Amino acid sequence: MNDELAIAVDNVSKIFKLPHDKQTSVKGTVISFLRGGKATYEKQHALKNISFEVKKGEFFGIVGRNGSGKSTLLKLLAGIYTPSKGSIQVNGRLTPFIELGVGFNPELSGRENVFLNGALLGFSRKDMAAMYNDIVEFAEIERFMDQKLKNYSSGMQVRLAFSIAIRAQGDMLLLDEVLAVGDAAFQQKCFDYFEELKRQKKTVVFVSHDMSAVRRFCTRAIYIKNGDMLHDGNPAEVADMYAVDNLENMQAQAVKKDSAEPQLPKTFSVASKITKQTDASIVLDVTFKTKEPDDLYIAISVLRDGASVAEITTPLDMELRGNGRVTYTLDATLFNSGMYEVPVVLCKKENRQLVSISTGKNRFVIKGEDPIRGAAFKLEDTWKYHEQ
Description:
Elements: E1 5-19, H1 26-34, E2 41-55, E3 59-63, H2 70-78, E4 85-90, E5 94-97, H3 110-120, H4 125-139, H5 154-165, E6 172-176, H6 184-199, E7 203-207, H7 211-217, E8 220-225, E9 228-233, H8 235-260, E10 268-277, E11 281-290, E12 296-304, E13 307-313, E14 324-331, E15 338-342, E16 344-348, E17 354-357, E18 362-366
Parallel strand pairs: 3-7, 3-8, 5-6, 6-7
Antiparallel strand pairs: 1-2, 1-4, 8-9, 10-11, 11-14, 12-13, 12-16, 15-18, 16-17
Helix pairs in contact: 3-4, 3-5, 4-5, 7-8
């Protein structure tokens, strides 16, 4: 194995056997055997002929939708699973952050679990005593350290487990969805820790559904779908593939849901869809119907990760009565890369009462590099250089 490589994965496949007949007792197993019954099972190909290399110092991303095989691959790298086919070579000591909190005892206090978990990581009691204050400060749970762990929220447990785990000394780190639980402040601490890992040129394998984090930290990434590796390269390209894949799945689910739901007559109704997208613009088409002579207006929001980043309404002097149609054109050049959603509502001008919400889920993807760490909008370039 090349000394410049940290990990080499060669033609790896993983197959699980899913039994069709499940015996819940020894008696049932014996009877089935005496009757000549043969166990039947189905093969699940979790990973199919995966090959890649991770160089020392890379921040390497593994991306894919749920069920794609990401966590299986991470467990293979950690040695929790063995490949059904192929080989994995690891050059150095590897520290997995896969299932944080494994080894915690819910009947012990947070303080006692710190020392217990530290011992599992190979630290002496003296080592853990020296690190204790830093661990507790990072986890932000000083007031709860003498409570039993079973009384902690899931977020508190993950923060404590992560704070302990990052003390482990290893050549490589495996990170699996460590940002899935935790508030914004804790996530920022994780980001700061990732920045430090990059400065130290640590080798990191990172599995996440947070594409802004993948774009921000990863130097290279692979995309996995249904057990197949579809791409190996630029993190921005991989993040785009994930966004498009998610968008197509959401659209398919929306069509299925709409066709299954009965359409009831309504006093007010509004419908919308994105009819055109280019590199320069996105066109939103909105139709509305009303059986009452109210003055109405249409409002839209642009959402990124569930948060509104922009909003606009039709002009208040624009008359919307009866049945009609309006279009709105978004300037696509304002957006950084990522997936966005545009909900549409119909309201009364008189009291701003919301009378109808569009059932259409209008989503669009902006592709490409994002050099400013995942922000939604690009600000206007007004920089000027001043000689000193």
